[in-house]
């Protein structure tokens, strides 16, 4: 945690929600331990509170928040009494004086409309002495209402931000229409949109270096956006970014060029995650490796052909072409 602050972050949010490690201790439907970390509420909370205490002692309570989802059941992490669980947690957290508690609305996973949720975060809000953030399924109107009714100090937004990077401005202008608010299906980028995406890679890398990272690895593997350009089984473009090897590698190399020297790139020519396979992975890998030489980047990180699908090993005659 100290390292996190050393590289420039303002603070840390401990992830105690959504079925991750800490949540697995908290919830009685998944914690079946019989030692001092299982059974009673107090025992199930021991681990979370030990983490909170350790982090607070390291970086100070005013830099620590926690995210909780007592009502959630992600990854089978449900609880038979989420009201008691949430309340117990915030009351225990008060001892440490942490900056904020960020709680996920009940029913979020099932997309139940906020107005129709029988359960509520209000008892947790009333019991917690620090800043209380709510999140999960909020739109502009619901968020303003939560603040006006003093059900929260702040509202967190997730998917609206993905569809609207200028969300605060849109909220200010009340310019978020319903269409924008939905997840849009993935679509082929228009050719004229591509330079902006390349520039966003550049900006993200610049931010990372300014925040203290030593370098940046471009994710060009495993079916993510760069890989989707590279592979002929998923890139069906007919413009300057589709078709020939040279065209399919153009986007990746533009990103590399925009980021300049202190970077590496990760490639997985042989894998087919998210349907991103290629009919000639040897040629693809080789073309990328040769093209990368002219940029003098730090390194190239290549995923083994035997790892065809992430997490699975396969016998294969192929090898990395470098
Ligand atoms: C595309 C997407 C991916 C997410 N991935 C994770 C994740 O990996 N782990 C996690 O705890 N929450 C994840 N979240 C949940 C967000 O952190 C946040 O709690 C949630 O989006 C807030 O609800 P809202 O999207 O309705 O505003 C994700 C949300 C979205 C939209």
Automatic annotation (TrEMBL):
The organism's place on the tree of life at top rank: Eukaryota
Tagged with keyword Flavoprotein: yes
NADH:flavin oxidoreductase/NADH oxidase N-terminal domain: residues covered: 7-173, 184-309
Keyword set, alphabetical order: Flavoprotein, FMN, NADP
Cross-referenced Pfam families: Oxidored_FMN (PF00724)
Gene Ontology MF terms in the entry: FMN binding; oxidoreductase activity
Record flagged with keyword Nuclease: no
Cofactor(s) this protein requires: FMN
Entries under SUPFAM superfamilies matching the protein: FMN-linked oxidoreductases
Gene3D superfamilies xrefs: Aldolase class I (3.20.20.70)
Family indicated by similarity: Belongs to the NADH:flavin oxidoreductase/NADH oxidase family.
Name of protein: NADH:flavin oxidoreductase/NADH oxidase N-terminal domain-containing protein
Organism of origin: Ficus carica (Common fig)
Lineage of origin: Eukaryota, Viridiplantae, Streptophyta, Embryophyta, Tracheophyta
């Amino acid at each position: 945690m100290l390292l996190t602050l050393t590289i420039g972050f303002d603070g840390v949010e401990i992830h105690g929600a959504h079925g991750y490690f800490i949540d697995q201790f908290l919830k009685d439907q998944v914690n079946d331990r019989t030692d001092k970390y299982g059974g009673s509420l107090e025992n199930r909370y021991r681990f979370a509170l030990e983490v909170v205490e350790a982090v607070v002692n390291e970086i100070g309570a005013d830099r620590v928040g926690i995210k909780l989802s007592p009502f959630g059941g992600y990854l089978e992490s449900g609880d038979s009494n989420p009201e008691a669980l949430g309340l117990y947690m915030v009351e225990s957290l008060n001892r440490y004086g942490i900056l904020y508690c960020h709680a996920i609305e009940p029913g979020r996973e099932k997309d139940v409309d906020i107005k129709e949720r029988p359960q509520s975060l209000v008892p947790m809000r009333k019991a917690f002495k620090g800043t209380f953030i709510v999140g999960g399924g909020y739109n502009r109107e619901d968020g303003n209402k939560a603040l006006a009714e003093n059900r929260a100090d702040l509202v967190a937004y997730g998917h609206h931000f993905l569809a609207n990077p200028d969300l605060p401005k849109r909220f200010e202008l009340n310019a978020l229409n319903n269409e924008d608010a939905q997840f849009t299906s993935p679509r082929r980028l228009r050719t004229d949109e591509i330079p902006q995406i390349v520039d966003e890679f550049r900006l993200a890398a610049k931010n990372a270096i300014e925040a203290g990272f030593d370098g940046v690895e471009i994710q060009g593997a495993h079916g993510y956006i760069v890989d989707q350009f590279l592979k002929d089984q998923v890139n069906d473009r007919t413009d300057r970014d589709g078709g020939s090897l040279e065209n399919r590698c153009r986007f990746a190399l533009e990103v590399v060029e925009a980021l300049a020297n202190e970077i590496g790139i990760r490639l997985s020519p042989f894998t087919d995650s998210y349907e991103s396979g290629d009919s000639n992975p040897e040629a693809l890998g080789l073309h990328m490796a040769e093209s990368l030489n002219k940029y003098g980047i730090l390194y190239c990180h290549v995923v083994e052909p035997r790892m065809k699908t992430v997490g699975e090993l396969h016998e294969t005659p192929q090898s990395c072409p470098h």
